[in-house]
Amino acid sequence: MTTDELRTQVAELLDIDPAEIADDDSLLDHGLDSVRVMSLVEAWRAQGRTIDFVDLAENPTLEGWATIIK
What we know:
- By secondary structure, the chain is mainly α.
- The N and C termini lie close together (about 5 Å).
- The longest helix is centred in the middle third of the chain and has 13 residues, at about 35-45.
- It has helices spanning about 5-15, 35-45, 55-60, 60-70.
- It contains 4 helices and no strands.
- It has a single domain (about 5-70), classed as Non-ribosomal Peptide Synthetase Peptidyl Carrier Protein, Chain A.
């Protein structure tokens, strides 16, 4: 998954403009909380992706997630 795809999904979830999120911004600073992360994890798992919530929580940036999510 690309950083742009992630940016779009996260921005939609947070109801903000995707341009507001830089690749290396902490998504927590933009208001992303554990409940929202879990909703993303569940959606991605439904697409067949293997994702661990803890990995995402330890790397809460688009750059970090792009390396984790395959």
